């Protein structure tokens, strides 16, 4: 015998919806608080618009403000509403990142967490160096420059570039401001050098080196032997600020 209309169309609050197993297959239930219509297949309630895809359909309001964020309304996960604000408005309330120009620290703002860590690493990794230019003449041995460090840091590598291939070795010595110009080597018997057939060299292992630099320390760079061909040389120290 066919069912009557009132037997297969029900309505009420979502929390009052009967179990799908207790109503006839094909029964429709309209939730008056979530505005969702579902159909029982005798086992579960399915979306009435397309029973085969389950119950995940989301319903929005009749209107909303352009560019406002959509947020969930109630706890069903099927009803959304106008969030009342835009992403741009939220971002405008976040203070800009504060960067210590001396140390590279990122102290506030949207660049927090992993982004701040990446930014902090990039800002704290710096290159300091000296150069020697003999013009048309081959470089001579001796002191070629000083580097002063206003903040503490750690040496993580060096690089040398010459204008032409040729052997050249350098020495680095360190002192604090109070004891300058009395200097002590930091290279531990492993000084920077470019082999005879090369025009460049670098090292990030730094075996035997004294790597720590205190705030106020001074590094002296010198050429320890007369290169046969090189007339211009650039020396770079890579450091990470503490």
What would your notes on this structure say?
This protein has 242 residues and is mostly beta strands. It folds into two domains: 5-89, no CATH class; 123-241, Sandwich (Jelly Rolls). The protein is built from three helices and 16 strands. It has helices spanning 5-8, 87-92, 113-124, and strands at residues 9-12, 28-31, 36-40, 45-47, 68-72, 80-86, 125-133, 142-148, 153-162, 168-175, 184-185, 193-194, 200-203, 212-213, 218-223, 232-241. The strands form four sheets. Strands 7, 9, 13, 14 and 16 form a five-stranded antiparallel beta sheet that branches. Strands 8, 10, 11, 12 and 15 form a five-stranded antiparallel beta sheet that branches. The longest helix is centred in the middle third of the chain and has 12 residues, at 113-124. The model is unreliable at 50-54 (pLDDT under 50).
Q: By helix and strand content, what is the structural category?
A: mainly beta
Overall pLDDT confidence: 84
CATH classification, class level of the largest domain? Mainly Beta
Q: How many helical stretches? A: 3
Sequence stretches where pLDDT stays below 50 over 5 or more residues: 50-54
CATH architecture of the largest domain: Sandwich
Overall number of strands: 16
Helix fraction by DSSP (H/I, runs of at least 4): under 10%
Specify the biggest β-sheet.
Answer: 5 strands, antiparallel
What's the number of structural domains?
2
Taking the alpha carbons of the first and last residues, their distance comes to 85 Å
β-strand percent reads: 35-45%
Oligomer: single chain
CATH level 3 topology of the largest domain: Jelly Rolls
């Amino acid at each position: 015998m066919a069912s009557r209309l009132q037997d297969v169309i029900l309505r009420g609050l979502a929390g009052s919806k009967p179990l799908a197993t207790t109503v006839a297959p094909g029964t429709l239930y309209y939730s008056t608080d979530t505005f969702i219509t579902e159909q029982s297949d005798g086992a579960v309630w399915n979306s009435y618009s397309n029973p085969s895809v389950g119950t995940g359909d989301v319903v929005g309001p009749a209107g909303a403000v352009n560019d406002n964020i959509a947020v969930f309304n109630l706890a069903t996960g099927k009803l959304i509403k106008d969030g009342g604000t835009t992403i741009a408005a939220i971002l405008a309330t976040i203070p800009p990142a504060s960067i210590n120009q001396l140390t590279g620290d990122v102290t506030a703002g949207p660049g927090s967490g992993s982004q701040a860590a990446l930014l902090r690493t990039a800002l704290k990794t710096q290159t300091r160096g000296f150069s020697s230019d003999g013009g048309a003449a081959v470089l001579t041995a001796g002191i070629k420059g000083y580097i002063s460090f206003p903040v503490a840091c750690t040496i993580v590598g060096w690089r040398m570039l010459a204008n032409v291939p040729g052997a050249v070795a350098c020495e680095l010595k360190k002192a604090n401001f109070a004891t300058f110009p009395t200097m002590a080597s930091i290279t531990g018997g492993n000084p920077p050098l470019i082999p005879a057939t090369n025009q460049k060299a670098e090292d990030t292992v730094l075996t035997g080196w004294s790597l720590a630099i205190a705030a106020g320390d001074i590094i002296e760079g010198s050429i320890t032997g007369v290169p046969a061909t090189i007339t211009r040389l650039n020396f770079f120290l890579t450091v990470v600020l503490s």
